[in-house]
Automatic annotation (TrEMBL):
Lineage: Bacteria, Pseudomonadati, Pseudomonadota, Alphaproteobacteria, Rhodobacterales
Cited InterPro entries: Globin (IPR000971), Globin-like_sf (IPR009050), Globin/Proto (IPR012292)
Assigned keywords, A-Z: Heme, Iron, Metal-binding, Oxygen transport, Transport
Family in the record: Belongs to the globin family.
Highest taxon in the source lineage: Bacteria
Location of the Globin domain: 1-119
Keyword Transferase carried by entry: no
UniProt protein name: Globin domain-containing protein
Database matches in PANTHER family: FLAVOHEMOPROTEIN
Source organism of the structure: Tropicimonas omnivorans
Amino acid sequence: MAALGPVAARTFYQTLFDLRPQYRQLFEEDMEGQYVKFVSTMGFLVDHLHDPAVFEHEARKLGSRHKEYGVVPIDYASGGLALMRAFDQHLVPPLTKRERVAWVHLYDEVALLMIDDGVPSGAERVSENQQPE
């Protein structure tokens, strides 16, 4: 993710705001700082995949902040779609099927940890065939 940097983060947020326009108002007009935060957070989580205590702690903290912003479980599906779109538009070479499945799985796991301490509570898993509401 770090290799893609702010360009992919920009696509992520543009897609997210297309799918969930109500979230645009939560951010500053200048999104450059947010792009850096997004890439940094994704990198941190990926770097700590093999340290479950740190990984889970950070994902839960991230979820707590997102709840304060008004993010609800169904919104996480839009985030997954936005992430995959960013990868599709900016990764060269593109993700293989195996890599894509791994990223979807990782996103789902993070989303579940972010939602009510890992309890799905109506959360939908991201899938290749899922369309936003």
